[in-house]
Amino acid sequence: MEQVVLLTGGTGSLGSCLLYKLALQLPAAKIYVLCRGTVNEAVQKWEFYMAEQIDDILDSGKVHCIRGNLNRDGFGLDPDDLKRLQEEVTVVIHAAADISLAQSLPDSIQSDCLPVIRIASLVQSFKAVKLFAHISSTFAQMHLSAGVVPERIVKVADDEPPPQTQLASILRTGKSPYAHHFITPYAQAKYLAEQLLMEYHDSFPILIVRPSSISPAVSDPFPQYGPDGAIPLHTFVTLALARGYDVLEIINGLPQEFILDEIPVDLVANTCLLHVAAGTTGVVHAAAQLYETLTVAEYVSRARKYAPKDVVERIAANGTKQGQPRQLPLDFHGLLMEEWRDWIFDCQRSKHLKNTPGPIGLQCTHVCEEVFRERVERWSKRLGVLL
């Protein structure tokens, strides 16, 4: 049966990749995209992200934009649009998120927790829904100590209050007695969102996909797809350089044996879609184990190998413009130097899919280092302009 999909976050980096695959690589009958702004604004974002692919996506006749706001109860949907969703939608993919690590806990709850509850509540009225897929994050379990992170929800404490009680307390006070367990407020918001969503498991089947840090695409919508603002590592280095911080000093201070867990955006999309097609429920990780695991030392070695010498020299000079190296602000310094642990995000539930061929498969048909080289060369040109 061809699915009718409701996609939130469809104008973001991962959401746009999912839209491309749903429209052009899968037999989806219809894709409803929830858009906060106008249709023209959505199209402009898609044209910016994937200018050569957007015409084919729209010409497929599958994409239907619906105006709605995730920050409002019921999303402010037009009654006719709501009725169509209630009658037709078989799969919901909630990919909307705000990946800012600098937000306060109340702001993170507003952007990354409450919308999950709102859409889950709305989906209870969908008559044909077969699966709710929520794109979470491996940050949701970064309260755990170093080691293997399982594909399930592990609580901070056995005696912690129910998630609804914790949420109510945060909304009332802006604080949480469990905040110190989490690497960032974003992580705590994701943690609570997962638990609150699972309270709806009697109403519809639920799949939670936890990507690790997202990197540029291997293949789709095109090789190296992914705006820098949606690639956490690119964002970090770009901001650090722009503010005159000593990037090389920061990198040298990191634990070199830790895994720098990244996965290409199109493999995150494929992991999600393969599990949606299989009707998987519960938690699955989309992390480096499904692609390539590199330690910080290995990552840096490759970057130095392929980055133009003049760019490396200018990066080094950038951090000492004021006569001495500038360090990161205390919050980011603490995040990297004190809070980061040697996590290994288990991907056992997707291991049987690693040899799946085709456009939504996880089979690796390329040389990972060659993809890395292309990424470094492309990114170096952008950094050269910045420096």
Architecture blueprint of SSEs:
Layout: E1 4-8, H1 13-24, E2 30-35, H2 39-49, H3 54-59, E3 63-67, H4 79-88, E4 91-94, H5 105-112, H6 114-123, E5 131-135, E6 147-149, H7 163-173, H8 185-198, E7 206-211, E8 213-215, H9 232-242, H10 247-252, E9 262-264, H11 265-278, E10 282-286, H12 296-306, H13 309-318, H14 330-339, E11 343-345, H15 368-386
Parallel strand pairs: 1-2, 1-4, 2-3, 4-5, 5-7, 6-11, 7-10, 8-9
Helix pairs in contact: 1-11, 5-8, 6-8, 7-8
Number of strands: 11
Low-confidence stretches: 322-330
Apparent shape: globular
The radius of gyration over CA amounts to 21 Å
Pattern of helices and strands: EHEHHEHEHHEEHHEEHHEHEHHHEH
Strand content: 5-15%
Into which percent range does the helicity of residues fall?
A: 40-55%
| Major sheet: arrangement of strands | 3-2-1-4-5-7-10
| Largest sheet properties | 7 strands, parallel
Number of discrete helical segments = 15
Whole-number mean pLDDT? 89
- Label the structural class: alpha/beta
How far is it from the N-terminal to the C-terminal residue, by CA? 53 Å
Organism: Hirsutella rhossiliensis
EC number: 1.2.1.84
Keywords: Lipid biosynthesis, Lipid metabolism, NADP, Oxidoreductase
GO molecular function, one term: alcohol-forming very long-chain fatty acyl-CoA reductase activity
The gist of it:
The chain contains 15 helices and eleven strands. It has 387 residues and is an alpha/beta fold. It starts with a strand and ends with a helix.
